[in-house]
Design brief:
Elements lengths: L2 H7 L9 E6 L2 H24 L2 H6 L2 H23 L1 E6 L2 E7 L4 E7 L3 E7 L3 H6 L1 E8 L4 E8 L1 H63 L8
Antiparallel strand pairs: 1-2, 2-3, 3-4, 5-6, 6-7
Helix pairs in contact: 2-4
């Protein structure tokens, strides 16, 4: 995980959690999208414009310039959108982030609610580029899906390792809590037992005094 990812995505996690890793979608997805847009919306229109006098007479040059600037801005938006489609792995949660200039969606899942993690491959060429879909299945039959994740097998190893460590910490905390509750229960039980014995002793003494008072014999103290 590089320093830019740490500084850029740290604002999306709670202060009490530590960021472990950031899982991106594969760069080939945005590169493919940019190439298609540049060819169809920039290179081909520019070639047609410069090689056609009739088009130049019909459309002023500044219109082409404005169009190319819009295409450039749209490509920047696509890059920003691609970079912000990630999974943020912390020591307690997996946070699914989908952010753009116009919206920001986040969702999270605790490790204790993860049933299993696996990868899905659509094309054989995906194996060559190490580009598979990464899927987290929840215990209540719901899923997180990160399409075209980069290095998915490495991501699975990270998620499984962090999940095991998180579950071990939770088990230790539960054991400590159970020990504390057992100790408190013992203290309360001893207190109640002592109180019960004291009440019985007090009732016994009161019964004896009542019997003495009700006795017909008198005690001569002269």
């Amino acid at each position: 995980m590089n320093k830019f990812d740490i500084s850029f995505f740290s604002k999306y996690i709670p202060e009490w959690q530590d960021m472990i890793s950031v899982i991106h979608t594969h760069p080939i997805t945005i590169i493919k999208k940019l190439i298609v847009k540049l060819v169809l919306l920039a290179i081909l229109p520019a070639i047609f414009y410069y090689n056609s006098i009739s088009i130049q007479e019909l459309i002023p040059f500044f219109v082409l310039e404005v169009f190319l600037i819009i295409v450039f801005i749209n490509n920047i938006y696509d890059i920003f959108d691609w970079y912000n489609d990630v999974w943020i792995v912390t020591d307690e949660w997996v946070i699914w982030l989908e952010r753009s200039f116009l919206k920001s969606n986040t969702n999270s899942i605790n490790y204790e609610n993860i049933e299993w993690i696996w990868v899905e491959q659509d094309w054989i060429i995906d194996k060559l580029f190490m580009k598979w879909d990464l899927v987290i299945h929840k215990i209540w039959d719901d899923s997180f899906v990160l399409k075209d994740a980069v290095h998915p097998l490495r991501a699975v190893d990270i998620l499984e390792t962090v999940s095991e460590q998180s579950n071990e910490i939770e088990d230790d905390e539960e054991d400590k809590f159970d020990m504390i509750m057992d100790a408190l229960s013992g203290v309360v039980w001893n207190y109640l037992e002592n109180s019960k014995h004291k009440e019985i002793e007090k009732e016994t003494k009161n019964d004896k005094l009542e019997k003495i008072k009700k006795s017909k014999n008198t005690i001569d103290l002269s």
